[in-house]
Amino acid sequence: MFKVVLSGQVCQVRCDFIVRHITTLTIMVIAAERIRTLNKYEKSILNSLERGMKRYEWVPLEQIKTATKLSESEVNYRLARLIEWGMVRFNPVPYDGYALVFGGYDTLALSTLTRNGTISALGSRIGEGKESVVYEALGLGPVAIKFHRVGQRSFSSARLNRDYMPEGGHCPWLIASRLSAEREYQALTALHPKVSVPLPIGQNRHTVVMALINGPNLNHCRLEEPEEVLDEILTYAGITYREGIIHADLSEYNILMEEGRCVIIDWPQWVATSHLNAQSILERDIDNILTFFKRKYNVVYDRGDAMRCVID
Ligand SMILES: Nc1ncnc2c1ncn2[C@@H]1O[C@H](COP(=O)(O)OP(=O)(O)OP(=O)(O)O)[C@@H](O)[C@H]1O
Ligand SMILES: [Mg+2]
Fold first, then answer.
1. 80-113 pLDDT, tens per residue?
2. CATH 3.30.200.20-classified regions of the chain
3. 255 lines ligand 1 (CB under 6 A)
4. Atom of ligand 1 nearest to the CA of 132
5. Whose CB among 127, 128, 159, 166 lies 3.0–4.6 Å from 134's, allowing a Cys bridge?
6. How many angstroms separate the alpha carbon of residue 292 from the centre of ligand 1?
7. Residue in 126, 153, 196, 214 to alter for ligand 1 test, most ligand atoms within 8 A of Cβ
8. 213 closest CA partner among 177, 266, 249, 251
């Protein structure tokens, strides 16, 4: 057990991961604890960097001083602390410039979500994908908070997989991660509760807060009645399609099983049914699911029948 309290309210949050995932967890815990102790000048600097990065890749010191109305010595002192905490980076060439990094962006988002009462405590890490990290948190009840991290590993591969990636700009990872979170929240809002997806609770910057699903990923389950679950997934894919949406990354890894029913997660890459390649994207989704059920349970479902079940 450990405590990471973001607001005044004290609560205990379980942490099984503290030894195995000490590095990432430590960064997040530091970020969470800093929110309470973050000085108003430090917050103001983070905010000015967020605004400044719309114009600059590296925000000049002069710009930060003007935006925050702080003295040069105060700004330098606060920036050194923010760099030490992994929230800001410094680049001396060709001028002294500073940039927000994911740690700082996480802090700004957590700070807003705490202030507006969406969450009050951050718990352990419960998932990590190619382009996100997911934590347990406490809102009105237990919730999941997903921090989108688009472009963290390879920005060019991220762009290949997404239609909505910003073309240029000074800070593509920041914009792309925010857009990714906004798109995921948009899909959850459009689909819940007609389709079994996590209840959307809140969204800020590159984060989405949603209901915490208690259950394993489909690939980790041993289903007693796989045919029924396959039917359920195809039915949800059909309702989703009639809402004008295709998941576009549907697979056993993006389905959680909670008390015998499936919950479809991970929506940022969804495409509209009017998309030029809608048919082939939907076919790929359906193929992923049919292949999984064939391989693991030897359940054979005709691809044409599955497509008709979804589209008709
Ligand atoms: N609402 C939730 N409740 C419980 N666990 C969740 C929730 N959302 C995500 N997770 C966990 O976090 C993992 C990663 O989430 P998700 O698939 O949305 O992110 P991702 O970065 O897109 O992953 P990938 O790129 O690998 O598909 C999931 O496999 C799941 O174990
Ligand atoms: Mg996923």
1. 999 999 999 999 999 999 999 999 999 999 999 9
2. 1-212
3. no
4. 21
5. 127
6. 18
7. 126
8. 266
- Domain 1-212, what architecture? 2-Layer Sandwich (3.30)
Atom 5 of ligand 1: nearest residue by CA position? 213
For residue 97, the CA-to-ligand 2 centroid distance in Å is 35
pLDDT tens profile 169-200: 667 889 999 999 999 999 999 999 999 999 99
Cite the active site residues: 249
Single-letter amino acid, residue 41 = Y
Domain with CATH 1.10.510.10 in the chain: 218-311
Tokens coding 245: 């949406």
pTM, two decimals, is: 0.88
> Could you say which ligand is closest to the alpha carbon of residue 132?
1
Task: Select the CATH number that applies to the domain covering 218-311 from these four: 3.40.50.1820, 1.10.600.10, 2.40.50.180, 1.10.510.10.
Answer: 1.10.510.10
